[in-house]
Every structure is written in structure tokens, then in C-alpha cells.
Amino acid sequence: MQDKSARSTSNDDLLDDRAAMLGLALGVLRGGGEPVEAIKRRCRRCEFAEACELDLRRDPNDPAWETYCPNTAALIALAESSGGS
């Protein structure tokens, strides 16, 4: 079994990468939807970090992540409201 701390990428990094893929900079988003802190909390607790990391490496635009990510709806809503992907 792989130690979670041994992963090459943290969940925060994965969230930043996923957000960037959607044209979002989470650090500058304010209001107008689900608080960014709630999104970050869900990402930190996510059980699918390995799949997320692999999907981001293989093809970040593949929508497969939408099937397992606990932040799918929130991230897509933010991207749509900010004019991202």
C-alpha cells in the first residue's frame, strides 16, 4: 500500500492544476458561488487523488475526472461564471 505522503503531488497542487485546466485561479476568486475554502477542504479529503494525478498527466482535458471528483459541479460552475472552459 502506498503512503499518501509519498505521492509526488499534493491534493492542493492537484486542485491548482485542475483549476488551471479550467481557466481558473482559485487564489483570486471571490464570492459568486461556493466558497473556495469548501472546495479546497473537499479536495484535501478526496480519495481519488491518484486517479486525478494520473488523469492530469495523461490528458488534462479528458472529462473522466468529472465522474469521480467531489468538486466537479463547483469547479464547472466557477469556470462557467468566470468565462473559463
Mean pLDDT figure: 84
Count the helices. How many? Answer: 4
Low-confidence stretches: 1-7
Q: How many domains would you count in the coordinates?
A: 1
User: How would a textbook summarize the main sheet?
Assistant: none
Helix residue percentage: 40-55%
What's the order of the H and E elements?
Answer: HHHH
Quantity of strands, as a count: 0
Proportion of strand residues: under 5%
Give the N-terminus to C-terminus distance in angstroms. 36 Å
Verbal overview:
- This protein has 85 residues and is mostly helical.
- The chain has one domain.
- 49% of the residues lie in helices and 0% in strands.
- The chain is built from 4 helices and no strands.
- It has helices at 11-21, 36-45, 49-58, 72-82.
- α1 packs across α2 (36-45).
- The longest helix is centred in the first third of the chain and has 11 residues, at 11-21.
- The radius of gyration is 12 Å and the shape is globular.
- 16% of the residues are buried.
- Residues 1-7 have low confidence and may be disordered.
Key structural traits:
mainly alpha
Summarize the structure.
The chain has helices at 11-21, 36-45, 49-58, 72-82. With 85 residues, the chain is an all-alpha fold. It has one domain (8-27, 34-82).
Task: Give the SSE layout.
Elements: H1 11-21, H2 36-45, H3 49-58, H4 72-82
Helix pairs in contact: 1-2, 1-3
